[in-house]
Amino acid sequence: SIIAGSGSDELIDFVMRLFIDPGDKVINCVPTFGMYQFSTDAWGGKIINIPRDAGFAIDVSEVKKAAAQGVKAMFVASPNNPSGNVTPREDILQLLEMPMIVVLDEAYYEFSGQTLVQLVHEHDNLIVLRTFSKWAGLAGLRVGYGVFPEKLARHLLRIKPPYNVNT
User: Fold this and answer.
1) Which string of b and e fits 27-38 if b means at least 16 CB within 10 Å?
2) Side-chain-side CA neighbours of residue 57 (13 Å)
3) Which of 27, 80, 102, 111 is 20 to 30 A from 68 (CA-CA)?
4) pLDDT for the residue 167
5) Which long-range contacts (CB under 8 A, 24 or more apart) does 152-156 make?
6) Which residues are within 8 A (CB) of 136 and not within 5 positions of it... i.e. 6 or more apart?
7) What is the structure's pLDDT at 101?
């Protein structure tokens, strides 16, 4: 299911609102987009920062260790902001095997041409976010969308304002 939002920032907030209770852990692979930390803090979650390696790749083994300690969600910007590297499909598939929500932020997808949105239909724990702020130059209009598994979309639509994106 595709759900629109006032930019992907609002969709990040909706995901937090849907899944994160105070004290819940969220994995953040730094350096990356600052809204993951901001929204986790805003909803009372506990951020688990896992540094990327020298080539800015995600350290999947460290993520596995953290996830084993009880993590609700993880955010992955791919291409990453600020480094621009794409997270390999194999790494994302390993993350999806873990018992957590994986939010794949493809805000810069149009510049890389690489997407994993097709995996949403195969994995109930994958959410893919996109925005029109980058490639379409609509930053001031705040329009984004997320591709959610049907089961998660039904819950999200219960908390999403009906007219957050106007005409």
Assistant:
1) bbbeebbebbbe
2) 9
3) 80
4) 59
5) 152/18, 152/124, 152/127, 153/1, 153/3, 155/18, 156/3, 156/14, 156/15, 156/18
6) none
7) 97
